[in-house]
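Thought: the user wants the 3D structure for the chain below. I'll pass the sequence to the structure tool as-is, report back what it returns, then summarize two notable features.
Action: structure_tool
Action Input:
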Amino acid sequence: MSVDRRRFVQLATVALGAGMLPLKRVEAGPQAARVCRVLRASSEAEFEVVLAGPTGAAALLVDEHDAAVVPIVADMLAADLYRITGQRSTVISKPVQLKTAVIIGTLGASRWIKQIVDAGKLDVAAISGQWEAAIWQTVHNPLPGIDRALVIVGSDRRGTAYGVMDLSEAAGVSPWHWWADVPVKRADAVGVTPGRRECGSPFVKYRGIFINDEDWSFEPWAAKTVDPKLGNIGPKTYQKVFELMLRLKFNYLWPAMHTISTPFAAIAENAALADRYAIVMGSSHVEPMLANAASFLGADNSEKNGPWNFVTNSKRILAFWRASVQTRGKYEAIWTIGMRGPWDDPLWGVHTLGQERSLVQKIIGIQRAMLRRYVRRYGGKIPQCYVPYKEALLVYNSGLEVPPDVTIIWPDDNFGYVRQLSDATERKRPGGSGVYYHLEYLGGPRPYCWLNTTPPALVWEEMKKAWDNDARTIWIFNVGGIKPRELGVTFAARLAWNPTHYHADAQDVFIRSFAADVCGQEHAQAISDLMRDYYMLGQVRRPEAMSRQWTASLNDYEIASLAARYHALLAAERSISSKISRECFDAYFEIFGYSAQMLAATGLIFLHDRLATTAAEAKNLQQRTENEQAVTHWRGYIERQVAWYNNELAGGKWRYYQNMGGASPQAKWVNVQWPWVHQRVPKHLNTPEHKKVLQQPAPQPVLAIGANAFVRKVAARHAAWIRVSGLGWSGGAMALWPAIPENRWDPATGLGSAPRMDYTLTLPRECRSATLVLKVLPTYELHPGMKLRIALSFNHGPMQVMTVPFASSEARINSHAIRRLGALDDHIPLQFAVGDLAAGKHSLTVYAVDPGIVLDQIQVVGG
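Observation:
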């Protein structure tokens, strides 16, 4: 079909001049063409195809024999058009006499699409055989009786669904309209211009979320508000999750699996519903074969089927897995293979690493034979994954042979730093690799289950590094109970769709865009600035990791500086919230404002508690009283905001969701370590080694600068130091980029060709017995056999090579005090004694040695 380009340009110009919204950029493959656009206007005359307007809404035509998700998304689109215009669309399955229509279908599954293609009215070559791709195209007389239509065709069932959901979002319905109460952008009419738009395949094949640690938020909310009849997480709740996933274009789910939750497989409708929504089901690293160990052991851990021990109880465990495979084998899934102990325990029944490796090797062989026998193949394959999480990574690196068609999902260290990526041999595996990444975590050295404090800048740095090292098959994000991680979840979805779309300024660009979508362009920059400061403070200390031990390690300058920054964050939030419209306020509060309030108020509680303790030790009654009153004030502030979130926000829709971080006396170890609650200190934080490091206030540096304050930066070959906006305490940490194995230099042969940064350090006074401190982020070596080093030359002296300690993938955070503190502080200090220094200027040159290094701050400390 020919397209009248002049008419399209005229309509687009008129629409933009009138303030109507063009289709948002969709991160698609490089072949995507963007011509057909969605417009919102007061008159239907602007459109080639009217979707909905004063005269009514277009019918939505589907084939009843198409995939089940197609009528589902057609119904969602109809509901969205009604939300926008007040006009109802009708979903039909056979053509009738119509002026306009939206025809929705899947290649090879819709007879209506086939009829249009066979008539030469729609060219689908660009998406034929592709994964989750789609085309929009306006077509005249597409079918008998229909004058003109917008045709949405997908290469497969999810491609069709994503094409429809893109249309909904472009028309004015946020993916978060239900989950975060983002208001719909209403209009008198909405339609499309003539033309065609191709949306290519996602860059990462499987993009998923893991609902985890649901005990304190997601499960009580679902059980008491969404589905009180069931009294747990079930189909009603998962339907809402699946709708969100379709809108965000996630296609893969690890469902809730704690003992408090009814196991996903225990309700047959769950899996059937997932298939209707075209969701690929999976299971976590402790749930092989889509089988939840909790249901095997019993909700009360009574071991009703015997122990989760393959050495002594293999017959029952195999029967348990077989039942899962026979029941779930007809649905699209990725089958987790291997075995660990329950609840993150190492494998039961073995005593040495060699025994564990041999047993896991045997188990994998048995599992794969079972899958071949019972599972339906999609595209001729049975997708499988192996997740070498925690101790399982040691098992893998000891020589475990994972079959080449199985995807290895590399884990992060639970705090956002990927422990290992594929080496040259592993990159050749046909199953490829992926990443399991935490936006939330329950475990040592401290959990962070309350707020979303992992900055998008860190997610970009680590996941783009993973992409550059060919981890491209599966990305799965632990999102806890989804809220209040809307911002982090959205960034994860967009980054997984196209990791090459964003660059080192990803955090700034994304938050401005997301804030504009939620609250309007007029508030976007202020919200972006607010969240920049929020994430920087979260990197200094997550609220869940705040404690009296932490404040005891702060010097007076740090206390004063942090207090000022917390107050500034609260002031900025108050300023923004006072300007947000009533219609947008709930969404603003849920996504942005609440988290900023809670982090700042929690920080002030701990700082005032420290000052009260110091005043008591000095017998200063007035200062002690003032600071104790401040603690009481900020405690009351948090309690009021949490109560409002739970009881008033969105009319009480989110009741029970914020039990996790509330300042109640019943707070447990998994919550904030409130100073008024006696807390059990985990044994790995209660060692003499840890106390010695943590409880000594850091000396005030004579000089402290961000690593981005260089006077000159020199690139080399295809590598350079880049500033990652929003990363680290400095808000602009410098990363060697790209972080690939080829970008390393041998200090033995000289570093003259390595990327470097030159600094001028101007000391305000003489400094005796000075130490130069380079603070690097707690990243890891790319893979075994590599190192993580950086080099420096001070005052033109000899080259000094510094190695980041415990940076191998086998380093366990809870096994080394340096790594534990690195996880809590979000940096590791590298120290180099430089002797007595005079006041004035000194030179420093920092050289790259190994990929993966990220330099955040430079300090000079001494007497």
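Final Answer: Structure generated. The first strand starts at residue 38 and ends at 41. The chain has four domains: 5-199, 206-504, 518-694, 703-861.
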